[in-house]
Amino acid sequence: MHWSSDDFVVGIDLGGTKIDLAGAGADGIPAFVSRLETRAELGARQALDRAFEAAAEIADKAGAGGGRCRMVALVTPGIAREGRIELAPNLPGIEELDLEGEIAERLGVRSTLANDVKAGAFAEARHGSLRGRDPAIFLSLGTGIAAAVVVGGEVVPGVHGAAGEIAYTLAGVADLGARLEGRAPLEELVGGRAIGDLASAILGERADAAVAFAHPSAAVAGVVDTALDALAVQIANMAVLIDPAAIAIAGGITGSSERLLGPLRSRVADAIPMPPEIFIADFAADAGLRGAIAVALAAAGSEPTIGTGAEVRR
User: Fold this and answer.
1) Separation in Å, CA 103 to CA 10, 74, 85
2) Dihedral, CA atoms, 154, 160, 165, 168, nearest 10 degrees?
3) Residue ranges of the chain with pLDDT lower than 50?
4) Is 11 helix (H, G, I), strand (E, B) or coil?
């Protein structure tokens, strides 16, 4: 497909707490970046309505020079299959929606859906810290938790598209019935929402994971240490199975990188004979959005050429 210099794509990262959107030309650099609250407790319908309105505004701005929107990519937690999203409990009601059909109706543009973490891994493997590192693991620590495995520069989907959904990892025999109970055992231990809830109960006021990681209270520090212990066990197990060259970490919790990386590195190094490098991903702060843009460009037939830069056009 021939691209003019003014053509562009739109990426939408629909998460459990926030929605990030941007346009991008063939260089893959985010432009006209917008952020909305998801308000997931009000259901997916209202979140999507507001996201589509914001996406239309971005498309109008990006197309002011006469360029065409070639593709919209929507990335979310869960599994993208046949125009829909499955296994996305943090976005109530989204599994019932025909997302590709709605994008075509509301925005009049071709679209593609992807899992947000796999999309982030795709961007990191092609243009970020995992480029040339093979195999590798991309680990997302946010409201929820998930991973992606990169082999030969490609993200491994799994037969059902569910590779890396480590939120459902069992912590022990007691979790054998977790699926029937609608639980995600590992996410209940180390997910950002779980850490924030436990810290809130201790402090008697609302606190998120970022507050918990920085709080001086010994009791809150104990919550964080327990989560890091559980996370280190899973990282060590993944590393033993895959023997990755590197593990890149992204997501909201990476804002507390000193509190996060030191304990994880030491715990994993003490646990396995050949530990991988563990570091913060280049696109840690906006992995889903960068992933949405990379996926949109690839689907539109224009492979982006971005590097690791933090450049953003406004």
Assistant:
1) 11, 9, 14
2) -160
3) 305-314
4) strand
Q: Which residues contact 201 (CB under 8 A, 6 or more apart)?
A: none
Are 24 and 293 a contacting pair, CB within 8 Å? yes
- Predicted pLDDT at 304: 53
Distance between CA atoms of 123 and 52, rounded to whole angstroms? Answer: 23
Distance CA 13, CA 15 (A): 6
3 state SS of 179:
coil
Order of strands across the sheet with 154-155?
Answer: 154-155, 145-151, 136-141, 246-250, 277-280
**Is the separation of the CB atoms in 116 and 288 below 8 Å?**
yes
Q: What is the pLDDT of residue 313?
A: 34
Asked whether 32 and 58 are in contact (CB, 8 A), the reply is yes
Q: Beta-strand (E) ranges in 43-95?
A: 69-76, 79-81, 84-86
Q: Is 202 helix (H, G, I), strand (E, B) or coil?
A: helix
Residue 240 has phi, psi (to 5 degrees) of -65, -40
Query: CA 248: distance to chain centroid?
Result: 12
Backbone torsions φ then ψ of 23, nearest 5 degrees: -100, 165
C-alpha distances (whole Å) from 249 to each of 102, 124, 126, 238, 291 are: 32, 10, 16, 14, 14
Contact partners, residue 46, CB within 8 Å, separation at least 6: 39
Tell me what pLDDT residue 179 has.
72
pLDDT value at residue 174: 78
Residue 272's alpha-carbon distances to 75, 233, 268, 276, 299, in angstroms, are 34, 10, 6, 10, 39
- Structure-block tokens of residue 218: 């010994």
pLDDT for res 199: 94
Helix axes of 99-107 and 44-62: crossing angle, nearest 10 degrees? 40
